[in-house]
Amino acid sequence: MRLGIDIGGTKTAAVAMDANGRVTEQIRMPTGWGGEAVVDTAVRAVTELAGLTGVSAHRFDSIGIGIPGQVERTTGRVSHAVNLGVDDLDLGGRLAGRLGIGVRVENDVKAAALGAYHLLALDGSMAFLNVGTGLAAGIVFDGRLWRGARGTAGEVGHMTVDPSGIVCACGQRGCLETVASGAAIARDWPTSDPLPVRALFDAADTGDGRAIALRDRMSDGLAMAIRNLVLTVDVDRVVIGGGISAMGSRLLDEVLRALRASALDSPFIASLELGSRVQLMPLGSPAAAVGAALVGVGG
């Protein structure tokens, strides 16, 4: 029995998987704020799944954690997880000490990429484009994560698209994330809707010119991310996930429109058939938690 935990900024999801890769139990709970609370949340998730499965915590075959921020895979140390109030935390070591079993820790987007690949029963190569508060991708080749030399493979959100643009949270100017992400929409289209992109799309549908411009800017940015992923690593599939993917076909239609437009004047880009490579992750899929479970066994 394998256990995977996805620690998000507000919610933590956890799954138990059997030896055949089937999810047997899953739970959700609020995520605590700050390092101590994050550790306590993870321990509580393990305890609850232990109760549901009848397997004591130290007898799980593996435990994997997906978490935002920079992750040192060899030690399980997490840094710069700003949405969790974590600057530096020895998460792997702390959990191993409390649970009595080794724990593997991975960046949440990379874990989600591995989970998406598994849940969609894909083969070959795939990029998981996570469109949430930020913008990043995880890349999988033949069922294994490709992290790059220093773990930054897939960080397309921090490719500069406008050197004179606004300052990104990473310190650069004009990153792709500053125009194509949940944070970018929330900044430029203030609303009481818990999903600002929905309010933006609704306004665009009524003919609001500014809303249309912002919607098109985001769609063009996501199309650019897809092009960059295919042009750099030539993946078979690009799967769109993350909170903004809850827009479903409304989002996909706009991204496909932008991809078609980019191919009109370029036979080379047209030959890549980008539109046929793109799909949405099904809403509500526990990809990150499943990926964390797979990371726990060395994914």
Automatic annotation (TrEMBL):
The keyword Transferase applies. Gene3D superfamilies: 3.30.420.40. It holds the Pfam family ROK. InterPro entries: ATPase_NBD, ROK. Keywords: Kinase, Transferase. The keyword Oxidoreductase does not apply. GO terms for molecular function: kinase activity. Belongs to the ROK (NagC/XylR) family. This is Putative NBD/HSP70 family sugar kinase. The lineage of its organism: Bacteria, Bacillati, Actinomycetota, Actinomycetes, Micrococcales.
